[in-house]
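Researcher: If convenient, please comment on what follows.
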Amino acid sequence: MRRKDREISDFDEIIEVIKKCDVCRIALNDDGFPYVVPLNFGLDVQDGNVFLYFHCATKGTKLDLIRKDNRATFEMDCDHNFILYEERMSCTMGYASVIGHGLIEFVPEEDKFKALKILMRHYHAEDFQFNTSMIKVTEVLKLTVTDMIGKRRNNVH
């Protein structure tokens, strides 16, 4: 990272940034080009290991790509704010972001309900009840994070 002064290396701080994000973009390998897709996600932390859960239809390009190569890069960001430096007649953007790598696997049928509860928890603090009949027509993915780093730009001159 070029700007070490913006780096977030503390695990708990990175997790707090993730909790504030509402979209996770994953990049998959597609014949020499990255295939990037924004997804809703759920976060689960167990014994210092980070897992991200996603849901989608049971067919599609991303699923085909994961079956060929389950390595992924992920990115998420939040806390966007415009920072104006009137005296210098310049501006920038404030943000917090997390970028990392991981391996994606398909969640088995018997574990889908638990994984979807984790995903729903990210968007609803309460125990959200959802239509379980949709589980059979929903693919659930689990990304096991292998490494990640955070970055932040605050409103500091």
Remarks:
- The chain has a mean pLDDT of 89.
- Strands lie at 7-8, 24-30, 33-39, 42-46, 49-56, 71-85, 90-106, 139-153.
- The first helix runs from residue 11 to 20.
- The chain is about 20% helix and 50% strand.
